[in-house]
Each structure stands twice: as structure tokens, then as C-alpha cells.
UniProtKB/TrEMBL annotation, chain A:
Organism: Tardiphaga robiniae
Listed name of the protein: ABC transporter permease
Transmembrane segments: 53-71, 78-95, 101-123, 130-148, 179-198, 229-251, 263-290, 317-334
Highest taxon listed in the record's lineage: Bacteria
Membrane topology summary: Multi-pass membrane protein
Parts forming coiled coils: none
Location(s), subcellular: Cell membrane
From TrEMBL, chain B:
PANTHER family: ABC TRANSPORTER PERMEASE PROTEIN, BRANCHED-CHAIN AMINO ACID TRANSPORT SYSTEM PERMEASE PROTEIN LIVH
Major localisation: membrane
InterPro entries xrefs: ABC_BtuC-like (IPR037294), ABC_transp_permease (IPR001851), BCAA_transport_permease (IPR052157)
Subcellular location: Cell membrane
Residue spans crossing the bilayer: 9-30, 36-56, 63-85, 97-116, 137-161, 192-215, 227-251, 271-289
Protein name as catalogued: ABC transporter permease
GO molecular function, one term: transmembrane transporter activity
Keywords assigned by UniProt, alphabetized: Amino-acid transport, Cell membrane, Membrane, Transmembrane, Transmembrane helix, Transport
Metal-binding recorded as keyword: no
Membrane topology: Multi-pass membrane protein
CDD domains named in the record: TM_PBP1_LivH_like
GO cellular component: plasma membrane
């Protein structure tokens, strides 16, 4: 969404309905549609490697979007997002394996189940300040991961759970190239849904809770209801993303979904810009591309003095974590509005070019 | 029922619990004085342990000298973190500050793994290891040492807050920053001191754990276990943190007893504190001794 200052001259709004449209100008809508159409050709153009990265950005982007509803719009934090992501993955795998429900329906169902479980953890904390939700989600992270490693009937315990490939009307999608479209569809639908939510009464209530919860309550907004709602939504999108991930990888395991992954999700939201919907996608792209680019750099530096001094190959995982942490701190201190803010500035600059002042 | 085993575990629980209490105390110190929820408390403990380990093994410094050096380092380190990273965040929303400390913990954790590797390292023998027999129980001297150090630190902390000038200034700042400032207390210095003291106390706890179990990145779990303890005790109560820590330690070991005797689930003791956390949030969210935060609209 463009900032209000970017509205071209001669574009007057005469009703609230027009003022709150998703796309402020016809050009921005056309560009968005063009972007989606161009993305549709991605599987034909890109190599498997880049396609896998795009799919990851899409899947994690949906999860980060959920987290952004919570962090950016309601002003609460969750550090159990990875556990909910994983819960969605296991639930979808379980539903599609143990019941005749096809994968197509299993994914939204997994989202609903995750939202329910999220509410169990979020409800006690939602009555209190944001601080308590952080701690409750910390507990959720440990309890859920412990549950996954224990419940053999559900997640297979120590053995990774298998997930069926995505199928639609009996036609089974095989390979990244076909699965890409499923992820793309989900990304487009979720981002449209959330943008729409933010135009609605409920969305504005969430923002009011973030900006000043006491004033919000004075104005008749039920704090508990909206905090719970936003936590449920966050868990829902985490569940959807997890389910998509399960049917993409075709195998689900506990591995790599500890608290570090939850912090990665937070990083996506912060880097992209808290409270910015398109920023979430930028932040996700940044966080997904960061380890990849570090790998390219270390491959380039192989054998050089820096490589010998730092022993890049052995320590790349640690360096990556350090980089992520430092980048989060840097963004919070220097650019709290994230990449989305940068992007707006660039757009403003070009819009007014060459008369930027 | 195996009474012997239960007693042994409860003694362990008491020892571990007092350590949780000490770490929780230093957590609450920061929270009370500066309103920062510190997710990097466990890493402060870990840094203290590694610094002491390096001094003792790499540089062959004797323990009586190495320990004060570690404390001095942690004092400076605490101030450094506060001044460089937390001070620019003053006035930012609570969640931004929380996210900064989460990021800090990631950075420290990864940096320490990078420097020292992932394998646990044994701590040099500081005490000749023996065991004391009390009744029918065999208790290792390190455990007794750990208990004594923890209790001493708690008493020291109580003295600090009740009597010393700095402690009073800190309490005044926690009560009301503006009033404290008008009485001539430098809130900036108090913030820095809170971090410095908290880092020092955590480092002592870290060294104690290291002497008992060796140093490894797993030590930072103490920073996570702090949360059940402080929620149980009340987020802004130092006494509550101690009580909460001891209860969580005892409960953890009791869970292990129940688990190994009856349930055979495996690692129940690791997650039991988190179940307790959720239950407390449901029934008594401000903990045993915390101030109820009532806002009427």
C-alpha cells in the first residue's frame, strides 16, 4: 500500500469506500496484477534452485504475515510461531494420511486446528499485557515440541511423519514447478485477505489496541476479544503455512523448528516492517536469501585468507545466526519501520523525480 | 515408593532451585529497575562461565584471582550492553525492547558456539570433590558449595537493596523514575548499574553451574527456566523470584521422580515448568508476590 502522500494530483476521493480501497490508484492495481501474472511464468524461467527459494519465500511469507498481524497490528509478540507452524504441518499430514479428506481441504483444516490450539495458549495471556503473551508462547514452543517428539499416534514421535503430495480432483501435483502455483495461490489469497481485514472494523480495532489499549477500551473495543482474535489469526496463518510446507517437503520432522526458527519469523516481520503487509514479503525474502547469499560469499572466499582465519565452512551456521541477530538489532535501532519504509522512500523519490524537493 | 531416590532428587531440586532463584533474581533486578524483559539472561550466565573457564584453563589464573576478574569483566560487559544497545531503546515500545534482547541472546549464543565450539568442557577442579553424608543421603561438596554461594548471594542482594545507597536509589527508580530523578538520582547510572549487577550475579551462578556440570551452551537454558520461576513468584518481586526459583527446581525434580517411577514418559522434567507456567497464567497471572496491575476504565 502506498503512503497517502503518493496520491497523484487530480485523484480526489469523495467517499470512504473509495478511500479505503486495497489499491489506492489504478496504476498500483495494474502493477499488482501484472506482478502476479509475471510470477506465474516463474516456473518456466527459473532453475529448480531459484524456484525452491521462491516457494520458501511464499510459505514462510504466509507464516510471517500471521505473525505481523500479531506484532505489527496488535502490538503483541509470539516466540512460539515455529511450534504453531510445525503443528499445522503435522496436523495436515495426519489428516491427509489417516482420514479420507483430500489434501486440498486438509490445509485449511490444519489452519483451523492450529488456531484452536493457539487460542488455548493465548487465551490466558490475552487478558493481560503483551509481555505475558511472550512468556505464554515461550511455554507453547516447548510444550508443543515436546508433544511432537512424544505423541507417536500424531506425529510419529522420533520418526518423521510422511505427508501426501497435493492433489486436486484426483490430479496429483508433482514436483516444485507444479507446487509453485499452489503456494502462489495461497500467498495471493492470504495477502488479499489480510489487506482486507485491515480495512474492516475488526482490523481498525486491532490497530487501536496496539496504539493505545486504554483509549481503545474506552472507545468500547473489547481488548480480550481482539487480542485473542489476533493471536488466533496468527496461529491460523502459521498453520496454513506449515501445512503447505508439509505437502511441499512430503515429510515433517521436529528438526529445525526450535526457538531459533521462531526468532527467524520475528526477524522477517521486523526487517520487513512491523505493520506493513507487503513489507512482510520483503522481510521474508531478505531472511530467506541471507543464508543463501552467505553461502555464495563463503564459496567465493574459499581458500582465501579470510576463509582460513574464520574457518567459514565450519562456522557458517553460527555466523548466520550472529548476522540475523545483529540485523534484527540494527533494524530495531536504526530503521524500526523496516524495508517497507525504505521502499516507500524510494518510490517517493522516483515519483517526484527530478523535482524531489 | 523409593524414598531414598525421592529425597536425593529433592535435594538436587533444592540446589538447582536456589540457582534458578539467583538467576531469576538478577532477571527481576533488570525488569524492576529498567522495565526490560531480558531474554538474554541465560547468555549472561553462559558468558560468565566461559570467561572464567578461559581464565582458568587458557591463562592458568588461580581461581581466587580468576573469579574477581570474571566479575569485573561482567560488570563492564553489563554496562556496555546497557549503554550501547539498550539505551537507544529507551522510550520505544515494550515489544521492540523485548525483541532486542531476544536478538541479543541469539547473537551471544551463536558467538559463543563459534568461539568455544559446541562440545561441553569440564571445569578445572576448584574444590576437592568429596561427598558429605547426611543421614542416609550422599551429597557432593560442590552441591553444598552451590547452595552456600546461592544463599550468600541472596543475602547479599537483600542487604544491597535494604541498606546500601545504590540499592535504595535503584528501588526509588523502580518505584517512580521522575520522582527519583528529582531527588538527584541519576536514572541513567541506575540503569547501567542494574545491568552490571545483574550480569555479575548471573556470572556467579554460571560459574557455580559450570563447576558442578562443566561449561556448555546448554547452560543458557537457565535463562529460559527463569520465566516459569518469575511468573510463579511475580514478575516484579525479588523475593518472589527466589521462592519461584526454588519451587520450580523442586517441582522439576519431583516431576522426574514421578516420571521415572510411575509414568515412564521420558523427559517430563524438562517441560513440567512450562505446564506450570501456563496454569499460573490462567489462575494467578501476577504470581505469588507480584503487584497486581489494575487499570480501571
Amino acid at each position: 500500500m502506498a503512503s497517502p502522500s503518493l496520491i497523484p494530483s487530480g485523484d480526489f476521493r469523495t467517499s470512504y469506500a473509495v478511500d479505503t480501497t486495497i489499491f489506492p490508484t489504478t496504476t498500483s492495481r495494474n502493477f499488482a496484477i501484472l506482478g502476479i501474472i509475471l510470477t506465474c511464468f516463474a516456473p518456466l524461467v527459473f532453475s529448480e534452485y531459484w524456484l525452491a527459494i521462491l516457494i520458501q519465500i511464499g510459505i514462510f511469507g504466509i507464516a510471517a504475515l500471521g505473525l505481523n498481524i500479531l506484532v505489527g497490528f496488535t502490538g503483541q509478540i509470539s516466540i512460539g510461531h515455529a511450534a504453531f507452524f510445525l503443528l499445522g504441518a503435522f496436523t495436515s499430514a495426519y489428516i491427509s494420511n489417516k482420514t479420507p479428506i483430500p489434501v486440498f481441504f486438509a490445509i485449511p483444516l490444519a489452519g483451523l486446528v492450529t488456531a484452536m490450539v493457539g487460542l488455548i495458549f493465548g487465551l490466558p495471556a490475552a487478558r493481560l499485557k503483551g509481555l505475558y503473551l511472550v512468556i505464554a508462547t515461550l511455554a507453547a514452543q516447548y510444550i508443543l515440541l515436546d508433544f511432537f517428539s512424544r505423541a507417536e499416534w500424531f506425529s510419529g514421535g522420533s520418526v518423521p511423519a510422511m505427508a501426501n503430495p497435493f492433489s486436486i480432483f484426483g490430479y496429483v501435483l508433482r514436483g516444485d514447478r507444479q507446487y509453485f502455483y499452489v503456494v502462489l495461490a495461497y500467498v495471493v489469497v492470504s495477502y488479499l485477505l489480510v489487506t482486507n481485514l485491515m480495512r474492516s472494523r475488526d482490523g481498525r480495532a486491532l490497530v487501536a489496541v496496539r496504539d493505545h489499549y486504554l483509549s481503545a477500551e474506552i472507545m468500547g473495543i473489547n481488548l480480550t476479544k481482539y487480542r485473542t482474535l489476533s493471536f488466533g489469526l496468527a496461529a491460523f496463518f502459521a498453520g496454513i503455512a506449515g501445512a503447505l510446507y508439509a505437502h511441499y517437503q512430503l515429510v515433517v520432522s521436529n528438526e529445525g523448528f526450535g526457538i531459533e526458527r521462531s526468532i527467524l519469523f520475528l526477524a522477517m516481520v521486523i526487517i520487513g516492517g512491523t505493520g506493513s503487509i507487503m513489507g512482510t514479503l520483503m522481510g521474508t525474502a531478505f531472511v530467506v536469501l541471507l543464508p543463501e547469499s552467505m553461502e555464495w560469499i563463503s564459496a567465493e572466499l574459499k581458500g582465501s585468507a579470510i576463509d582460513r582465519a574464520l574457518q567459514l565452512n565450519n562456522n557458517l551456521t553460527f555466523l548466520r545466526e550472529i548476522a540475523i541477530g545483529l540485523i534484527i538489532i540494527a533494524f530495531l535501532v536504526f530503521e524500526p519501520d523496516g524495508l517497507a519504509h525504505r521502499w516507500r522512500q524510494i518510490k517517493t523519490y522516483w515519483k517526484l523525480y527530478p523535482f524531489s524537493h | 515408593m523409593n524414598t531414598q531416590f525421592l529425597l536425593q532428587l529433592l535435594v538436587n531440586g533444592l540446589v538447582v532451585g536456589t540457582l534458578y532463584g539467583v538467576v531469576a533474581m538478577s532477571f527481576v533486578l533488570i525488569y524492576k529497575a529498567t522495565q526490560v524483559v531480558n531474554f538474554a539472561q541465560g547468555e549472561l550466565l553462559l558468558i560468565g562461565a566461559w570467561v572464567c573457564w578461559t581464565l582458568l584453563t587458557k591463562y592458568q589464573v588461580p581461581f581466587w584471582l580468576g573469579m574477581p576478574m570474571t566479575l569485573v569483566f561482567m560488570f563492564a560487559f553489563g554496562i556496555l550492553i546497557q549503554v550501547v544497545i539498550l539505551r537507544p531503546m529507551v522510550g520505544e515500545p515494550v515489544i521492540s525492547v523485548i525483541m532486542v534482547t531476544i536478538a541479543l541472546s541469539t547473537v551471544f549464543q551463536a558467538a559463543l558456539k563459534w568461539i568455544y565450539g559446541v562440545n561441553p568442557q569440564p571445569f578445572p577442579r576448584v574444590f576437592t570433590s568429596q561427598s558429605v553424608t547426611i543421614g542416609s543421603l550422599q551429597i557432593q561438596t560442590v552441591y553444598v558449595m552451590s547452595l552456600v554461594v546461592s544463599v550468600a548471594m541472596m543475602i547479599g542482594m537483600a542487604w544491597f537493596f535494604k541498606v546500601s545507597k545504590w540499592g535504595l536509589a535503584m528501588r526509588a527508580t523502580a518505584f517512580n523514575q521522575q520522582v527519583a530523578q528529582s531527588l538527584g538520582i541519576s536514572v541513567k547510572t541506575v540503569f547501567a548499574m542494574a545491568w552490571a549487577i545483574s550480569a555479575m550475579v548471573s556470572a556467579v551462578a554460571g560459574v557455580v553451574v559450570a563447576v558442578v556440570n562443566g561449561v556448555s551452551s546448554g547452560l543458557s537454558i537457565y535463562g529460559i527456566k527463569v520465566f516459569p520461576a518469575v511468573i510463579l513468584g511475580g514478575l516484579d518481586s525479588i523475593g518472589g523470584a527466589v521462592v519461584g526459583g526454588i519451587i520450580i527446581g523442586l517441582l522439576e525434580n519431583f516431576a522426574q521422580f514421578v516420571d521415572s517411577e510411575y509414568l515412564h514418559w521420558g523427559n517430563l522434567y524438562e517441560v513440567a515448568p512450562f505446564y506450570v507456567l501456563i496454569i499460573i497464567l490462567m489462575i494467578k497471572p501476577y504470581g505469588l508476590f507480584g503487584t497486581k496491575d489494575i487499570e480501571r476504565v
